[in-house]
Amino acid sequence: MDFANVASQLNAGTILPEGIVVATLLGVLIVDLILGRNSSRWIGYLAIAGLFAAIFALYLQWDNSNPMFFAGAFNGDDLSIVFRGIVALSAAVTILMSIRYVEQSGTALAEFIAILLTATLGGMFLSGASELVMIFVSLETLSISSYLLTGYTKRDPRSNEAALKYLLVGAASTAVFLYGVSLLYGLSGGQTELNAIANGIATANLAQSLGVVIALVFVIAGVGFKISAAPFHQWTPDVYEGAPTPVIAFLSVGSKAAGFALAIRLLTTVFPLVAEEWKFVFTALAVLSMILGNVVALAQTSMKRMLAYSSIAQAGFVMIGLVADTQAGYASMIFYLLVYLFMNLCGFTCIILFSLRTGTDQIAEYSGLYQKDPLLTLGLSIALLSLGGIPPLAGFFGKIYLFWAGWQAGLYGLVLLGLVTSVVSIYYYIRVVKMMVVKEPQEMSDAVKNYPEVRWNLPGLRPLQVGLVTTLIATSIAGILSNPIFTLANNSVTHSPMLQAKAVDSTQVSAVSAKPTDGL
């Protein structure tokens, strides 16, 4: 085989965005090696510039006519482009909020950013991986980097405990997932590419065999851990409470988005003949996640633990689009994850600012915060109200789109449960907002009474301010000006060959449902 044929099969241009992230990672390490501590003032901006360059490279690859890399191991279709963009953008905002936090914790910023970029790289590859070895390597790159980030503040015993719990539960889930994909490898006759696995199972007439069902259950268990869906959520509250706050901000958005991308690709490609089975399992996961996440969040006294259970509940809402298994369902998932990125990172930015200034994350300590820090109060209030689905914020339109897609697919019980649990969630979100805004000056908490003067000219606080204002504006206007995001989400589904059959099915359903109206 000559070099031209090898190059055409490799199609390395497909992973140009990931190549830019690798170059950025190496640049961060080299600059830190040469300049040492003096590089910490601008090394974060170097990483952010590299991530935005990768996002721009993703934009240039939209509607790529030849998206396959390395003979089918990686699929750079429009669906993967959107998910890779979410992972990269969440990493960029996380770096903005982590500069001051990491420096104040007394740890090295360059190593933190390097590990975060490695996790980003794993998440981006996982979003487009279409071959078992690529999936496993990408998953482990993301997971191991996440373990390291969780225990990065070595002097904090809570961080060490969170990292150990995350590692033990994560290793068990990886073993379960690996056993599931090894079953797929055997049942398909030794195939590792997802389409070849599906064809091998169908050719051997094993679609309804016990082996495929066991593989499906094990694969769903691995994916459920990654998206922190109940009952695979046990790690989430402890990790959220003990890990550095910027790390859980990235895990709640970037890691979750990569997990959903993997779920879509595996379920629609490998398990189309057992669709009813996996829809039933994910319906159960969605029900458990929405009920447990929202009900347990009511009793939380720590802001980070409250957002941990909120994250479990949000995964339940997103799974409604997955269970719908239609064009509208997948598009609603993408739309919600895009707006969830801004509102969740806005909330975590506010929590980081408050903890840096007061040293606590207890909900009761937010009492009367409006009197001392109106900007932080506004940002946290908008983020929490958007997470609760209050109109006209972005979260409201995201939930409406998800519920509409589920209702159109006949998931009436799931949608009604989503509506009820959304109302429950509004209570614990508004409780925090009321505490910050309504309390009288004499009812301020001790932390707010001793609140330091708000100054943005201190080292590392300017990036936090930029991150707060940017995510606040995006959360506020993304709902009102949501049409471009709707279009992006829909196009990413209709332009992806893997999901084009879903688009055709949706079109046929719409045409059939329109006939009686036309007759009238």
TrEMBL record:
Uppermost EC category: translocase
GO molecular function: NADH dehydrogenase (ubiquinone) activity; oxidoreductase activity, acting on NAD(P)H, quinone or similar compound as acceptor; quinone binding
Transmembrane intervals: 15-35, 42-61, 81-102, 109-126, 132-152, 164-186, 206-227, 247-268, 280-299, 306-324, 330-354, 375-397, 409-430
GO biological process: ATP synthesis coupled electron transport; photosynthesis, light reaction
Subcellular location: Cellular thylakoid membrane; Endomembrane system; Membrane
The keyword Lipid metabolism belongs to this UniProt entry's keyword annotation: no
Predominant location category: membrane
Membrane topology qualifier: Multi-pass membrane protein
Entry's EC annotation: 7.1.1.-
Domain annotation NADH:quinone oxidoreductase/Mrp antiporter transmembrane: ranges: 129-424
Pfam families membership: Ndh2_N (PF19530), Proton_antipo_M (PF00361)
Catalytic activity field: a plastoquinone + NADPH + (n+1) H(+)(in) = a plastoquinol + NADP(+) + n H(+)(out); a plastoquinone + NADH + (n+1) H(+)(in) = a plastoquinol + NAD(+) + n H(+)(out)
The keyword Ligase is annotated on this UniProt entry: no
Recorded GO CC terms: endomembrane system; plasma membrane-derived thylakoid membrane
Role of this protein: NDH-1 shuttles electrons from NAD(P)H, via FMN and iron-sulfur (Fe-S) centers, to quinones in the respiratory chain. The immediate electron acceptor for the enzyme in this species is believed to be plastoquinone. Couples the redox reaction to proton translocation (for every two electrons transferred, four hydrogen ions are translocated across the cytoplasmic membrane), and thus conserves the redox energy in a proton gradient.
Subunit record text: NDH-1 can be composed of about 15 different subunits; different subcomplexes with different compositions have been identified which probably have different functions.
Protein name: NAD(P)H-quinone oxidoreductase subunit 2
Originating species: Chlorogloeopsis fritschii PCC 6912
